[in-house]
Amino acid sequence: MSATKKNSLSQKKPNSKSAGFTLIEVLVAMAIIAVTLAAASRAAGHALDSSAELKRRVVADLVAQNRLELHKAKHDWLASGKLTGEETQAGITMQWKEEITDTPNPAFRKVVVEVYAAEDKQFMLRKLVGFLTLEPKQ
After folding, report:
1. For residue 130, what is the enclosing H or E element?
2. Which of 72, 132, 129, 66 has the alpha carbon at shortest distance from 94?
3. Which of 122, 99, 119, 112 is nearest to 56 (CA)?
């Protein structure tokens, strides 16, 4: 190589576009990542809240079904009126109310079971309606 060619190669300036990302580009990318992670975190929080509420409602459904099935299993013939109580399922305590009413058919009684959150007696989680039958004595 000639001396002039060597000088022109050694004096070449590096291309500023290929030197890397600018500070502004890095900050914009970090801002986009931060917004994305914040949205994902919020969505995960909502999913956890939803699963806890779903668990409470499933447990409330179990309590209501258990109350009706208990009367059926014991062949109860309940007098018209109201009953209240408390039951714990899966570590969650629920309040329940039962309203027993007569039906046009004297061999049936209507039972309405309402299940409430223990911490808020006004917030009904489940309402279940069933019927008891008067079984003939043998």
Report:
1. strand 120-133
2. 66
3. 119
What pLDDT is stored for residue 11 in this prediction? Answer: 55
Give every strand in the sheet of 92-102, ordered side by side. Answer: 81-89, 92-102, 108-117, 120-133
Total domains, the chain: 1
pLDDT tens for 95-133 read 999 999 999 999 999 999 999 988 888 889 999 999 999
pLDDT band at 90 (very low <50, low <70, confident <90, very high): confident
Has residue 95 been placed in a domain?
yes
Q: How far apart are CA 57 and CA 61, in angstroms?
A: 6
Q: Does any domain span residue 117?
A: yes
The model carries a pTM of: 0.65
CA-closest candidate to residue 132, choices 82, 80, 77: 77
Full domain range(s) for residue 44? 21-133
The answer to whether residue 104 is domain-embedded is yes
- What does the block give as tokens for 3? 């001396």
- What CATH number did the domain enclosing 49 receive? 3.30.1300.30
